[in-house]
Amino acid sequence: MKVCILGLGEVGNPTTDYISRKGFETWGYDKSAVAVRNARNIKATSNWNNIPHGQIEVHIICVSTGILVSSRPGMSSIYDASKKFGPLVSVESTVSVGTCRKIYEDIFNKSVV
Ligand SMILES: NC(=O)c1ccc[n+]([C@@H]2O[C@H](COP(=O)([O-])OP(=O)(O)OC[C@H]3O[C@@H](n4cnc5c(N)ncnc54)[C@H](O)[C@@H]3O)[C@@H](O)[C@H]2O)c1
């Protein structure tokens, strides 16, 4: 199984390490070249086109949600990351209540029953 982690920081880096040590082919994507350089034992890139999209079965979002705005996490990176692929499997980032529903409905055009 191939897994792709978006965001290779404090959370994403050990997550990729753990998953790759479990024997899964692990890809990592980060917009920061420094974060990509620091990622070890995985195929990491800051070029989204290098990811074998059709073959990835599990996506995990670990991007930063930045400075809290009005006591809420900044959500733009979450929405940006969600638009990049199909159904989410896991969001590890700190998100506002209702975010996963909003992604499901507004980005994936699915209705929650
Ligand atoms: N670090 C912790 O102990 C901890 C604990 C609980 C929850 N969290 C949550 O996990 C999330 C990540 O935290 P962190 O500490 O790993 O942050 P971090 O700043 O260490 O790493 C985040 C990474 O995401 C990348 N990134 C941001 N936007 C991106 C985008 N649109 N596309 C690709 N890459 C992008 C950044 O370049 C950075 O390398 C946050 O939501 C945070 O609140 C962190």
In short:
Helix content is 28%, strand content 19%. The protein has 113 residues and is an alpha/beta fold. The protein has a five-stranded parallel sheet with strand order 3-2-1-4-5, sandwiched between helices.
Overview of the structural elements:
The protein has 113 residues and is an alpha/beta fold. Helices cover 28% and strands 19% of the residues. It is globular. The model has no long low-confidence stretch (mean pLDDT 88). Bound molecules: nicotinamide-adenine-dinucleotide. The site of nicotinamide-adenine-dinucleotide has 22 residues, from helix 3.
Defining traits:
binds nicotinamide-adenine-dinucleotide, alpha/beta
List the helices and strands and how they pair.
Layout: E1 2-6, H1 12-21, E2 25-29, H2 33-38, E3 43-45, E4 56-61, H3 76-82, E5 90-91, H4 99-107
Parallel strand pairs: 1-2, 1-4, 2-3, 4-5
Nicotinamide-adenine-dinucleotide binds next to helix 3.
Largest sheet: 5 strands, parallel
The helix count comes to 4
The N- and C-terminal alpha carbons lie at a distance of 30 Å
Helix proportion: 25-40%
Strand order of the largest sheet: 3-2-1-4-5
